[in-house]
Prior knowledge:
- The chain is of the alpha+beta class.
- The chain is 25% helix and 22% strand.
- The protein is built from three helices and ten strands, in the order ββββαββαββαββ.
- The chain has helices at 25-33, 82-97, 129-145, and strands at residues 2-3, 10-11, 13-15, 22-24, 67-70, 78-79, 103-106, 111-115, 150-154, 159-165.
- A hairpin with a 7-residue loop joins strand 5 (67-70) and strand 6.
Amino acid sequence: METCPICLVDKKLEKICDNNHYACKVCMILSVINKQYYCPICRNNINIERFQLNNLNVPFDFNKKKIYFRINDGSPWKHYDILTSKKILIDINYSIALDKYYGVSKLNDNINIYWGKLVNKNILHKKKEKLYKKHITELSRWKGLYKNIIVEYNTNNYTLKLCAII
């Protein structure tokens, strides 16, 4: 373990350029996602093939996967638009790269996507007691049916949707 010169955290480092500069996997994921294909230390080109998501043990390729959602078990699965799916998957991949396996992706002021241990009753509003109790029941049931759940919660109209990566 060495200290990453970019984020200053002790991690396993990987060679990023021909000048023998090193950085951690997370910093390189962020560089590639932000289309910064140069070494942050010397500005030489980096070998971006080494830092593509599929080479970094990050499980969700946002060019091949989409985020789908449904309001209840009887409703059909629908998918978010490509840019929204990509944003959510980038956020999920980033949390996995940090070994967190939980997080939130803020889509706008009212809509958040939650995954991992953040999927719990604390994300719900209690303003409408009947709806709050229904949502707690849905979360419990979904957690029993699915190993890792992702949910969308809209604080404007209090809708809760089950999401899936397909």
